[in-house]
Structure formats: structure tokens, C-alpha cells
Design goal:
422 residues, nucleotide-binding, Histidine--tRNA ligase, binds histidyl-adenosine monophosphate, 8-stranded mixed β-sheet, ligase, 2 domains, alpha+beta
């Protein structure tokens, strides 16, 4: 029979006890640490569906973005309605607030889940990937910009990320954006034929995105192009400098006037966190202010700022290590005593919820079970056979110290031993 494979760019994550450096393990640990950071910042969780009306993304992420143009996973459902696997989380959060009629309040929300983009897979770029995001809603420009960068610094610290750089920019008001785009078009139009193919299309539809070009010809032409910094009000430049001053002791912060981001909804402060350790796909986090999105989707005027981070990219960068708990491999020598031996394991588990007790479920020799316990990096093996059950003793063997003697313990002593483990 023909084998069934996972789809291109979509991977299985399977945690491994034996290999702590395995990407799946790192992904799960990253998620745990991120949730902790979000809690520390007093941010609440939101979960939205993975499937949404396709129009939600067309109207928010934007018709001219790469995401909507060519990367959406869109299908017709049984009712011939176009639905899309979410490529990002911000639009769904806003849709949810509008629907629940809570778009006039303030909210600090985080989410974590799979997103889908039909991209060309490579290291750090997948078609199904996991993102965590934070959205601060109902807050005008000001303190929340600082809060965003503070969260990024906490992520860099807790995940022990090497060589992080935060790039920041300000896109100004709609008026600033328009004046700058007019000047950019005026400068680029006479050289249109020298631009990259993608950039020619962007010139008509979304000239700001040309600043994000990967085309060397366009990059050369852009060297002498008007700069957004010349169009920004003094207050925006001041904010960029203040943010740089505040956080420079924690992380390298670069003001990058060509940073524009790939989604259409951004309005003011924008940022990206990158690390040279990632290779070509160097951004592990990105975000910015999007004050116009809620109104644009049919809700109230709602100032907002947010960011999202790629979990796999963070996991690739993370040097964090799991806080180790003591682990016991519980070995029942023969299935004939399963019920009575299992009672002991069940009882031990209720004594200490800070340790792991792994009851070996498969049949096999003591030798193979000890091999399993060692492979799983257990700290101790607790071994129970018929003789032990009869005498009320169990065998305890330390696996971290291979030279240690195995001990015979009375059940009550074992209970004390387990209760005191950390
Ligand atoms: P984004 O820059 O499109 O922003 O994605 C955020 C992060 O998701 C990226 O920096 C990257 O780490 C990760 N990512 C994106 N595409 C892929 C992929 N194909 N494979 C692996 N990782 C990927 C947003 O999604 C906005 N919603 C962020 C935001 C929230 N802005 C305001 N609020």
C-alpha cells in the first residue's frame, strides 16, 4: 500500500526523554517559558478558531501583502463559503472583540497556536508553524510601546537567546505615510524599469513595501531615496531614541528607517527581533501599532499594539534548560502481580506531585526494563517483584550514580523517601 506522508512544510513534534536538545523538546519548553512570561506581565489568554472567513484576512493583513496574495490556505466549505486556515492571530483577536462587543474596553491578551502559510519551506520557515502573540488593545501610543520591548527583553533573557537585535522604526501617521509614499513614488518612477519585478508591482499597489526588497538593483536605487525619517514628526523620532536609551543596556536596539513589516495594518511604531544565529530567516518576532484595524473591520476606534513570535525559531535559538524534577522509573517485574504492585505506584504518586513517576507498561525482562529506565534518564528505578510484595520490601536503585548499591527499603521508608524528593 502506498505510504501516507505528512504534507510538505508540516512537521510532527514528538517529545523525547532521551534527547533534551531535540527541537520538539525545545518547542515545548519554549511554550512553557513564554506562558510564564506572559503571566508575569499580567496578560490574559485568548483562543480563537484556526479557521476563519477568508475576508477577515483580506481586509486586515491586506490584499497587497505576500500572505494574502499567495500564501493563504483557503478552501470552499460544503456550503461553498471561502474559509481560511489563519496565517496569523491579530485579525482574529480583533474580530472576536468586535463580535463580543468589547472593542471599547482595554485588554492585554496573549495566544499560542498553529498558523498556516503556503511558503517555500526552509530552515525556520514552515507551512504549519506555531506562533505566540501578545496584543495590547485600547492603549494609545506611549507606555505600551515600552511594554512591548520590555516583553522582548524578558523573552531574550528567559530563553537565553544569543546575539539578539531589536530593530525599531516609526511609520508615522496616515498623513506621514502618504507624504512619504508620494515622495518615494516620485523618486522611483523614472527608474521603474531598473527595479526588481516584484518591486514594480509594489510601486503601484504598496510602495512602502519596496523598502523591504531583497532585489539588489532596487536596494542600490533605494540608497539615495527619500527617507521616512525626514517625514516623521519630532515626537516619533524622540520616542525611538527614548526606547533605544531605555533598553540598550539589555539588548542591541537599532533604529532602522527601512523597517516596514509585511502586513498592511501597521500605523506607527514597528519592530522586529532578529538573531544572526538563525540564518536567512532571521526574524524570530515582529509587531507594531495598528490603530486603524478595529474600525477597518467594522468595530470601534481602538488603538492597539501587538507582536507575534515564531515558536520554532525561538526554539532553534533558545539555550534555556528544563528545570529538572526527580524521576522514578517504576518497574513491575511480572504482570501476575500487576494489581498489587500498581497500587503502590498509585499511592506513591499521591505523595509528591513535584516528581515524575513513570510506570513501565510493557512486558519484558528486568534487564530490558533497566535499559529503558537508563535510556529515559530516570534518576531512580523502583523495582517490585513477587518476593518484594510478599516481604513488604522494594528495591531502589540510583541510576544517576551507577556505582551506588541497590537498596532494599520497607514500603514506609519508600514513602518517606518519595515524599522528600524534589
Ligand atoms: P509576522 O512578522 O508575519 O507578524 O510573524 C511573526 C513571526 O512569526 C515571525 O517573526 C516569525 O518568527 C514567525 N513566522 C512567520 N512565518 C513563519 C513561517 N512560515 N515559519 C515559521 N515561522 C514563521 C505577524 O504574524 C503579526 N500578526 C504580528 C503582530 C501581532 N503584529 C501586531 N500584533
Amino acid at each position: 500500500m502506498e505510504k501516507i506522508h505528512s504534507l510538505t512544510g508540516m512537521m510532527d513534534l514528538i517529545s523525547s526523554k532521551a534527547d533534551k536538545e531535540d527541537l520538539s523538546n525545545k518547542v515545548f519548553l519554549t511554550e512553557k517559558l513564554l506562558k510564564n512570561i506572559f503571566e508575569n506581565f499580567s496578560i490574559s489568554e485568548i483562543r480563537t478558531p484556526a479557521l476563519e472567513d477568508t475576508n477577515l484576512f483580506k481586509r486586515s493583513v491586506g490584499d497587497t501583502s505576500d500572505i494574502v496574495n499567495k500564501e493563504l490556505y483557503s478552501f470552499l466549505d460544503k456550503n461553498e463559503k471561502s474559509i481560511t486556515l489563519r496565517p496569523e492571530g491579530t485579525a482574529s483577536v480583533i474580530r472576536s472583540l468586535i463580535e463580543k462587543k468589547i472593542d471599547g474596553d482595554t485588554h492585554k491578551l496573549w495566544y499560542l497556536g498553529p498558523m498556516w502559510r503556503y511558503e517555500r519551506p526552509q530552515k525556520g520557515r514552515y507551512r504549519q508553524f506555531y506562533q505566540a502573540g501578545v496584543e495590547m488593545l485600547g492603549y494609545e501610543e506611549g507606555i505600551s510601546e515600552f511594554e512591548m520591548i520590555s516583553i522582548i527583553c524578558a523573552i531574550n533573557r528567559e530563553l537565553r537567546i544569543e546575539n539578539p537585535v531589536i530593530k525599531i522604526n516609526h511609520l508615522g501617521s496616515n498623513e506621514t505615510k502618504k507624504n512619504f509614499c508620494d515622495a518615494l513614488i516620485k523618486y522611483l518612477k523614472p527608474m521603474k524599469s531598473d527595479l526588481g519585478e516584484k518591486d514594480i508591482a509594489r510601486l503601484e499597489k504598496n510602495p512602502l513595501r519596496i523598502l523591504d526588497t531583497k532585489d539588489p538593483n532596487t536596494q542600490k536605487i533605494l540608497e539615495k531615496a527619500p527617507k521616512i525619517s525626514n517625514f516623521l514628526p519630532e515626537s516619533s523620532i524622540k520616542m525611538l531614541n527614548e526606547i533605544k536609551d531605555t533598553f540598550s543596556k539589555d539588548c542591541e536596539i537599532n533604529i532602522d528607517y527601512s523597517l516596514v513589516r509585511g502586513l498592511d495594518y501597521y500605523t506607527g511604531f514597528v519592530f522586529e527581533a532578529v538573531s544572526s544565529n538563525l540564518g536567512a530567516q532571521d526574524a524570530y518576532l515582529g509587531g507594531g501599532r495598528y490603530d486603524g484595524l478595529c474600525k477597518q473591520l467594522g468595530g470601534k476606534e481602538l488603538p492597539a499594539i501587538g507582536m507575534a513570535m515564531g515558536i520554532e525559531r525561538l526554539a532553534l535559538l533558545s539555550n534555556a534548560v528544563e528545570q529538572t524534577k526527580s524521576s522514578i522509573s517504576f518497574i513491575i517485574i511480572s504482570s501476575t502481580i500487576a494489581a498489587n504492585a500498581y497500587k503502590i505506584a498509585h499511592d506513591l504518586r499521591s505523595l509528591n506531585n513535584k516528581i515524575n513517576i513513570d510506570v513501565q507498561l510493557s512486558e519484558g525482562s528486568l534487564k530490558s526494563k533497566m535499559r529503558r529506565a537508563n535510556k529515559d534518564n530516570a534518576d531512580y528505578a523502583v523495582i517490585i517483584g513477587e518476593d518484594e510484595l510478599e516481604s513488604g520490601d522494594v528495591i531502589v536503585k540510583s541510576l544517576s550514580d551507577q556505582n551506588s548499591e541497590q537498596l532494599n527499603m520497607k514500603l514506609n521508608d519508600l514513602r518517606d523517601f518519595i515524599s522528600n524528593l524534589k
